[in-house]
Amino acid sequence: MEFLTPAFWVAVGQIILIDILLGGDNAVVIALACRGLPPKQRKMGIIYGTAGAIVLRVVLIAFALALLSVPYLKLVGGVLLIWIGVKLLLPQDEGDEHANIQSSDKLWAAVKTVIVADLVMSVDNVLAIAGAAESAGQHQLPLVIFGLLVSIPIIVAGSQLVLKLMDRFPVIIVLGGMLLGWIAGQMMYTDPGLKPYLPEAKTREYAAAAFGALLVLAIGKLIPRNKGETAAH
């Protein structure tokens, strides 16, 4: 049964890690959007908003999985994923990027805010998860749904714990950025437009994935250094 293959569970692990690393902002958005609700309605706002966001994200990922079969689109997606991985490694700005999230004292208005904000912020998650799911072969959408169902509660209930672990062990963020680079390398090597020109060898595919991971690490470490040198001048 394909659900028991190592590739399936590796992809599940990748999806959960991607969601935790890239989904911390979503937990903040949920909290900010529901902060104006009466205490009795906050729990319902979080549950309904999160459920709506999960359904919307599954639909988006289903479209993304279909689009990945279009020639040369994986190349574009791979470049975007590398940049997302690099951004993950860069120091965070001090400014409050969530200051414009509006709270509401009406339950459905708060739910709508959560869903719309998640839609805007989930492009990186959708792209990364679609790339991870594609590497597992068949049963991609069930894999995506399973990964989301496991990771979303972790984000909502344990976001503070996850953030503290990231602060204490920065290597988690570095490994997460490199994971995105790994997926990007795989995506770009397996692009349908390049298929006639590249040998179908798993060793070459893994080499491209490793190159993507190392590229994210190298750029992520280089940019802060360059910023420091510019500030010094």
From TrEMBL:
Subcellular location(s) of the protein: Membrane
Which UniProt keywords are given for this protein, alphabetically ordered? Membrane, Transmembrane, Transmembrane helix
Q: State a single Pfam family of this protein.
A: TerC
Topology in membrane: Multi-pass membrane protein
Locate the transmembrane regions by residue number. Answer: 6-34, 46-66, 139-157, 169-186, 206-223
The organism's place on the tree of life at top rank: Bacteria
Please give the PANTHER family that the UniProt record associates with this protein: MEMBRANE BOUND PREDICTED REDOX MODULATOR, SLL1022 PROTEIN
Family under the similarity heading = Belongs to the TerC family.
The name this protein carries in UniProt is TerC family protein
Which organism does this record belong to?
A: Ramlibacter terrae
